[in-house]
Amino acid sequence: MVITHQELAVELGTAREVVNRLLKELERQGKVSLGRGKIECIDTALN
Q1: What is the pLDDT of residues 18-30, one digit of tens each?
Q2: The HTH crp-type domain covers which part of the protein (predicted)?
Q3: Is the pTM of this model over 0.70?
């Protein structure tokens, strides 16, 4: 699935900045890996 941070924010009814902040926090916790144009789930509980 390909979706931008903006599109994800619209789907969730929030701002792009909030999506960015939440994704960064998940990355800090080691649950996801963020790369250019992709989000990889690391924590299998999220899969």
Answers
A1: 999 999 999 999 9
A2: 1-45
A3: yes
